[in-house]
Amino acid sequence: MTDRNTPATGGDGFAGRYRAAVAERGRLCAGIDPHPSLLEQWGLPVSVDGLRSFAQSCVAGLGPTAAVIKPQVAFFEAFGSAGFAVLEETIAGCRAAGALVLADAKRGDIGSTMAAYAAAWLEPAAPLCSDAVTVSPYLGFGALDPAVTLARTTGRGVFVLARTSNPDGTELQTAQVARTRTVAQSVVDAAAAVNADGSGTAGVVVGATREHGLDLSALAGPILSPGLGAQGASAADVAAVFADTADPAWLLPAASRAILAAGPGAADLAAAASTVRDQIEAALS
Ligand SMILES: O=C(O)c1cc(=O)[nH]c(=O)n1[C@@H]1O[C@H](COP(=O)(O)O)[C@@H](O)[C@H]1O
């Protein structure tokens, strides 16, 4: 039996593990974003104990339900080393429940430093090792090489920011590179080149909140699309925004607050995630 959580080196890489997860559980990335306001809404203290209770409910409700779970590192980091300990438990718990974990750390630096970030998030023996990590290409796509290489050799993935869901990204991401294509398209094309080996190592991030103007047809890797719910996009928007520009099999819509608002009950979180997933599957069918 294939175990998604002990990826073989070689083989069909992250693509195979991703396809297996989505085939079994449907296209949804559920975010774990422990906003202080959500902790309060759940009746929890804004403290490490509150964070741990929040995360444990998410692991219990979302771990067995969502194909991919995306803990937002910032909300754990805010609690310092104790927060990172909770993040380690959360990553391990979600993976043990059969979900792929995408650490939303948005790392990106010069190559030599990037190698250390890659080791932190993608090296199998590392305490925070996840199945994939979000990365920023704005020090140059080539600077991401250490993460791409480690991901490829361990059957893991990187998700590269291309066209983000927030309005602030537009000016930079739609600027023209050598008057031929946008910055965002150049990121997508570089990711497609990584995936030419069929590994699906390089996913991209493209928000569902607006028209992206990208050609994603040659990517051959997952497309994380945040913006559902709290940022205003609907499942129908996801379908419209990616119609004719991407292979729907690779689409991975993401929602955090829209699901987390159903807490603190684990069963309620699972039901909310299933509802969002069903809406996505219906819209994309
Ligand atoms: O990389 C991301 O996940 C991301 C990229 C992007 O373009 N927009 C975006 O909202 N995100 C993340 O996705 C999550 C969205 O949360 P909700 O708006 O509550 O669904 C947050 O953790 C964001 O940091």
Automatic annotation (TrEMBL):
<feature type="domain" description="Orotidine 5'-phosphate decarboxylase">
    <location>
        <begin position="27"/>
        <end position="272"/>
    </location>
</feature>
<dbReference type="InterPro" id="IPR018089">
    <property type="entry name" value="OMPdecase_AS"/>
</dbReference>
<keyword id="KW-0665">Pyrimidine biosynthesis</keyword>
<dbReference type="InterPro" id="IPR011995">
    <property type="entry name" value="OMPdecase_type-2"/>
</dbReference>
<dbReference type="InterPro" id="IPR013785">
    <property type="entry name" value="Aldolase_TIM"/>
</dbReference>
<dbReference type="InterPro" id="IPR001754">
    <property type="entry name" value="OMPdeCOase_dom"/>
</dbReference>
<feature type="active site" description="Proton donor">
    <location>
        <position position="106"/>
    </location>
</feature>
<protein>
    <recommendedName>
        <fullName>Orotidine 5'-phosphate decarboxylase</fullName>
        <ecNumber>4.1.1.23</ecNumber>
    </recommendedName>
</protein>
<keyword id="KW-0456">Lyase</keyword>
<keyword id="KW-0210">Decarboxylase</keyword>
<comment type="similarity">
    <text>Belongs to the OMP decarboxylase family. Type 2 subfamily.</text>
</comment>
<dbReference type="Pfam" id="PF00215">
    <property type="entry name" value="OMPdecase"/>
</dbReference>
<comment type="pathway">
    <text>Pyrimidine metabolism; UMP biosynthesis via de novo pathway; UMP from orotate: step 2/2.</text>
</comment>
<dbReference type="InterPro" id="IPR011060">
    <property type="entry name" value="RibuloseP-bd_barrel"/>
</dbReference>
